[in-house]
Amino acid sequence: GRLNWPGLLLLRVSIIRAGWVRRAEIILSRGHTRLYDAALRIVKLAAPFPPIPPGEKVDELYVTRTWQFLPGDVLRNR
Predict the structure, then answer these.
(1) How far apart are CA 18 and CA 53, in angstroms?
(2) Number of helices and strands (H, E) in the chain?
(3) DSSP 9
(4) Please, are residues 5 and 35 in contact by the beta-carbon 8 Å criterion?
(5) What is the pLDDT, as a whole number, of residue 4?
(6) Distance CA 42, CA 21 (A)
(7) Nearest to 3 by CA among 65, 68, 69
(8) How far is the first Cα of the chain from the last one, in angstroms, to the nearest whole number?
(9) Alpha-carbon gap, residue 35 to 40, rounded angstroms
């Protein structure tokens, strides 16, 4: 279905070594609350992510992205 709820989110995702999402949280939200649910659902559907390479000394990776939902089902992130 069409969203048609323009808005902006700042989303932080924590990914564990195996590539699974440990936590996803909205840091900033400007728009409809349904965008919050949609962004979290998108992240969960994208998991698992590629695992962190064995040589890296990182147990958990944090990714922070800005998501902009635009009219016409357009999603822009940076």
Answers:
(1) 9
(2) 1, 4
(3) E
(4) yes
(5) 66
(6) 12
(7) 69
(8) 24
(9) 9
Distance of CA 44 to the CA centre of its chain: 8
Q: Tens digits of per-residue pLDDT, 52-62?
A: 998 999 999 99
Residue pair 39/9 in contact (Cβ under 8 Å)? The answer is yes
Sign, Cα dihedral of 65, 33, 70, 49: positive
| Block residue for tokens 């992130």 | 77
The rounded Cα 52 to chain-centroid distance in angstroms is 18
**Phi, then psi, of 37 in degrees rounded to 5:** -65, -40
Taking 3-state DSSP, the helix, strand and coil percentages for the chain, each rounded to the nearest 5, stand at 20, 45, 35
* CA distance linking residue 61 with residue 49, whole number of Å: 11
Distance CA 47, CA 60 (A): 15
Question: What pLDDT score was predicted for residue 29?
Answer: 86
